[in-house]
Every structure is written in structure tokens, then in C-alpha cells.
Design a protein that fits this description.
two-stranded antiparallel ribbon, 10 strands, 10% strand
Length: 297
């Protein structure tokens, strides 16, 4: 018999145990064999989750959902240097102590299993790719911010941002137009390779069993596809994909798989280099500007 004293807290991480004793969804399913084998079940299986962070995340998500009358919410807190998941929440949640028909409807994990076009959150990744490629060198250089036609479409911003913007201003004001110009200079193929190196073209790397497959355009990308991906459309990934990509962007440039398991100090995987360390340092400055002066306040 299994009892969950925290109720629905971290339910999508933990999962639940059926009346027959088998683990379902979450880490109960992943660790089912270990937790039921007589030779290993007495050994603790320590997860990376911090219950204090988990509680704070779920409270903030629930508050945000009430403010905008949302049908669901997803959130993750990731250690950027190790890939450890400190908190992961998909709301509405369910109580693993009381599995019912209503609860089953809430077991879908929006963080790892649902793919979304994540929009402007991709713009910093595009800038990082451009800095790495050497096409973005001067932070003061100005790009046209005027709408322009391409391939039968018009790329424009939600409102006029003036005639021109530099790179920090583009991120602060979140300009689709300037992002498209940056992709044009960098090349759609270069952006595609960076996105692939961030594993945006495959299921998210984590132990949890339910992992959605991204909507990814196979083959070479035409320029218009590269432009729209540059500002987060024409590609759909999970929130976990995005969190892991941001971790690589800010931790010195190393991509590591997310993990639900506690990692001993100094034992984090080496990871794969995606961005230069100097690019990562510059991106931390630019992201800080977005939170101080821009759309991320």
C-alpha cells in the first residue's frame, strides 16, 4: 500500500500505485521494478525534486491560472548546471491517494507530453545562434523594424516599434521583424542545426515515461521557415525542451539532459557543447535586460 502525505503535490512527478501494486505514470512507473524487487526495494530512490520549490511553483501556477481563467498550466524549475529538475508541475493536478475517473483526466503531463508553438521565447535562442555564427557582432547595430513581405506573407510585429532596433532593443521589445532579418543573415540551415543540437527534433530527454514528439519540419528549411522558427512558430516542442535549451544558453553553452534523479555533487554529465562560453555570457546580460526593461518584467 502506498500513501502520499502531500496529496496532489508533485503528482505528475511521482505518479501512483494501483490497487494491484503496480506503479503508473511518473517515477512510480519508472522505478516500479526497483521498488518491488526484494533485493533493491529497501534502497532509497532519491529524486531531484525540492518540495519547497515544488510547492512554490504550484502555488504561482494556480494563481496565474485564476488571474487569466486558464484551463491549464505548466511549469518547470531546472538546475542549469546539472539538468536536475527541482520542480515540475502540470495543472490541474490529481490526488494519487484517490484515483477516480475525474482524476484520470488530469494525469496528462503538459510539461513533457504536450507540444506547443512557444513563440517569442525562441528569440533569445536565435540571437545566441547568430552571435555564435558571427553574424551578430555589434550590439549597437540597427536593423529595419518595418514590416516586409516574403513568400506571400508579411512579417510584422504586434504593434509598431519604430523604423529600426538594435539587438538588445529587439529582445526587450520582442520584434518578429528584426528576428527575421537576423535569421536571413545567419541562414535558415545554421538555425536548423542549432535547434537540432538542442534536441528540438526528438522527444525530450528525461526519465518520465510520457514524452511528446516535436512538430519539426524535416529536410532543409527554406528561408521563410527559418524566419518563423526564429520567433517561435512553425515548430512545436514541450516546455521541457525549452527549459533544457535555455539551460544550455546560460550555463556556459553546454546542453545536458534533464533528470528526475538526484545527482551527487561533481557527478553531473559533461554534456554537449552548443554555444560558446562567451556567447552564453552575453546572453545572460541580454536576458537580464529583458527582465529589467522589457517583456519579461
Amino acid at each position: 500500500e502506498r500513501h502520499y502525505p502531500q496529496g496532489p503535490l508533485a503528482a505528475h512527478v511521482l505518479g501512483y500505485v494501483t490497487a494491484e501494486g503496480g506503479g503508473r505514470i511518473g517515477m512510480e512507473a519508472v522505478l516500479d521494478k526497483r521498488l518491488t524487487d526484494v533485493t533493491t526495494r529497501s534502497t532509497p530512490a532519491e529524486l531531484s525534486i525540492d518540495l519547497r520549490v515544488q510547492g512554490a511553483l504550484e502555488d504561482e501556477l494556480a494563481r496565474g491560472m485564476r488571474l487569466v481563467d486558464a484551463v491549464g498550466g505548466a511549469g518547470i524549475v531546472l538546475d542549469v548546471d546539472t539538468g536536475e529538475v527541482l520542480a515540475l508541475a502540470s495543472l490541474p493536478s490529481f490526488d494519487p491517494n484517490h484515483i477516480s475517473t475525474e482524476n484520470v483526466a488530469y494525469m496528462f503531463n503538459r510539461v513533457t507530453n504536450q507540444v506547443y508553438e512557444l513563440g517569442s521565447t525562441f528569440k533569445p535562442l536565435t540571437v545566441a545562434a547568430g552571435i555564435d555564427a558571427g553574424t551578430i557582432r555589434d550590439m549597437g547595430r540597427r536593423y529595419s523594424a518595418r514590416p516586409f513581405p516574403i513568400g506571400g506573407f508579411t512579417i510584422k510585429d504586434s504593434h509598431s516599434l519604430g523604423d529600426s532596433l538594435n539587438t538588445p532593443e529587439m529582445l526587450i521589445h520582442s520584434s518578429n521583424v528584426v528576428t527575421a532579418h537576423m535569421v536571413e543573415e545567419m541562414g535558415a540551415d545554421r538555425l536548423r542545426k542549432v535547434m537540432a543540437s538542442l534536441h528540438m527534433n526528438e522527444r525530450a530527454k528525461i526519465e518520465l515515461p510520457a514524452k511528446g514528439f516535436p512538430i519539426w519540419a524535416a529536410g532543409d528549411w527554406p528561408l521563410l521557415r527559418g524566419m518563423t522558427v526564429g520567433y517561435g512558430h512553425g515548430i512545436a516542442v514541450t516546455p521541457l525542451h525549452l527549459a533544457s535549451a535555455y539551460a544550455a544558453m546560460v550555463n556556459g553553452g553546454m546542453w545536458r539532459p534533464a533528470t528526475m534523479r538526484k545527482i551527487e555533487p561533481g557527478k553531473a554529465p559533461r554534456g554537449e557543447r552548443v554555444f560558446k562560453a562567451s556567447t552564453s555570457a552575453r546572453m545572460r546580460q541580454l536576458l537580464r535586460a529583458i527582465t529589467l526593461y522589457g517583456t519579461g518584467r
